[in-house]
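Data card: per-record layout.
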Amino acid sequence: MHTATFFITTARSGTQWVYETLRNLYSDVLVAEHEPIRYSYAPKQCLRNPAALSALRTQPAIRRHLDNIHETVRERDYVEVGFPAFAAAPLLWDEFGERLRLVQLVRHPVRVAASIVTHRWFDPGQRSDIQADIAVAPTDPGVRLNHYAERWADMTAFEKALFYWAEVHLYGLEVQDRFVAVPFTRITFEDMLTREETRRSFTHFLGLPYRSEWNEAPGRKIDDYHGQTGSRLNLGEVRTMPEIARLAAHFGYDFDVISQRELQRRYHDHAWGNRLAMLREQIEQTIPSGDAFVLIDNQDLGIYDALSGRRVLPFLQRDGEYWGPPINSQQAIAELEDLRGSGVRWVVVAWPAFWWLDRYGEFARDLDERHRCCRSSPHGVIYRLLERS
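The structure for this 389-residue chain is written out next.
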């Protein structure tokens, strides 16, 4: 019998690394996907909400996706890696029954929360997609730590991200106890990187042979995103959230292994404001007022809709909303060409997304060889899109 495996985990917990490793090592025996329907699982609405889960199951996009998985498991195992499905365990049990497998993937809460802050999840007016469907809040009916509602408005983005981490993993513990018939395993991302025993246990859980290439996987760089934030991160805020500290200890995490200095060095950009001001000035000097431009910035800069009379387009996008980075260079090239065909003539690659130029090498070469680089600085690169010859 072929199985369908899903993950209970947070964002920024190594899912991309897990997915890429499974895809590279086991494409001959299983189908692995990474967040194939993005945020459509809507965990913010569906957490501990049977009615919302029942309604979700009938939505056309969800229904098509589940039906496709049923087709897949007729011939191969299926593994869906990613964080949006964390609240869907009851739906998945009803759908797949004895085929279902669940993995709880945990990463140190401080690193998860700090990384989420760099993605602007909780900044006012930004990441509306995340805030609408993913980022649980203490006023949501399905949460456990609802007493934080009293001070939610005054909590920092770092504290809110720690809250999100706790809610996801409290639910993971609950699912393990509640769905005793479902094969369940819990692993930490840190152990996956450092312990061969954990990698062997994980592959055994999936019913896969352990392949020697696993030993090379920890050294393989998958996620090139190394965002930083202009906001100060205060490690002491963890001490004001005792539930998070206890839960972290339950998973074997010690807050003392991360220093305030390390946290600031990795995640805080002391020159953020100055760099943003200089990039804005360069855009205004280069792109004519009234023109639209594509902004590649991981949604980090907080420049949305318009900039001094210039329309700003996120990339990738769906219906004007940010959709995340491309799967590969071919997707990036194709979608940029569609935008060029609709009249867009400018692309700005901002410094938080410079990793794109390494990760998507063919896309970078296409920009350099087929279009005109009008401005390049440590803050951003501005391209003028040209007609295809």
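Known properties of this structure: The mean pLDDT is 91. The domain at 4-261 is CATH 3.40.50 (Rossmann fold).

See the next section for split statistics.
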